[in-house]
Write a structure and sequence with these properties.
This protein is an alpha+beta fold and 173 residues long. The chain is 16% helix and 49% strand. It has two domains: 70 residues, no CATH class; 89 residues, Immunoglobulin-like. It is built from one helix and eleven strands. It holds the Pfam family HSP20.
Length: 173
């Protein structure tokens, strides 16, 4: 059943109410588990989300951070999931990831699965990042270039012409 909204902002108000309720459930669960001594601490708890509108006009909520929902319960992981944008334009795929607080030499970027998956792993101080990104189309691993500046990692890939790729690590400059 589809709801009708008089004002387009009513949809966002409803989404914000649902997100606030989810945060309250997470907080109650943390407090309950904290009393039982089951919560591990990995430094600060990081949780964020971004709302965008998809090509079909429906909102897309993307979460990032080190708090995951596991079978209805919050789970804190040591690795943070960075906020990532994947932009496909012409014959190129551009991946932009926020990985602040790490040295560029500790960032490992790898293309796997025949150019279909990009893996980002970084570690520095008390921060660890990990993200597997399914690319919108197969990428040519030999064309990959990665740069890191002011906490932002940018990877530029050309779309693949053949399907015979094994996987290759990309040097971050």
């Amino acid at each position: 059943m589809s709801r009708r909204y008089k004002d387009p902002f009513d949809l966002f108000d409803e989404m914000i109410r649902e997100i606030e309720e989810e945060f309250e459930r997470f907080e109650r669960e943390f407090m309950r588990l904290g009393g039982e001594g089951e919560v591990k601490t990995f430094g600060p708890y990081v949780y964020g989300f971004r709302v965008t509108i998809g090509p079909d006009g429906k909102p897309i909520v993307e979460e990032f951070g080190n708090i995951k929902n596991y079978k209805g319960k919050p789970m804190i992981t040591e690795e943070r999931e960075p906020l990532v944008d994947v932009i496909e334009k012409g014959d190129e795929i551009r991946v932009i990831a926020e990985v602040p607080g790490v040295d560029k030499n500790s960032i490992k970027v790898k293309i796997t699965d025949g150019g279909k998956t990009l893996i980002i792993r970084a570690e520095g101080g008390d921060r660890k990042y990990y993200k597997e990104i399914e690319l919108p189309t197969q990428a040519d691993e030999n064309s990959a270039k990665a740069t890191y500046n002011n906490g932002v990692l940018q990877i530029i890939l050309k779309k693949a012409k053949s399907k015979e790729n094994e996987g290759k690590e990309i040097k971050v400059e």
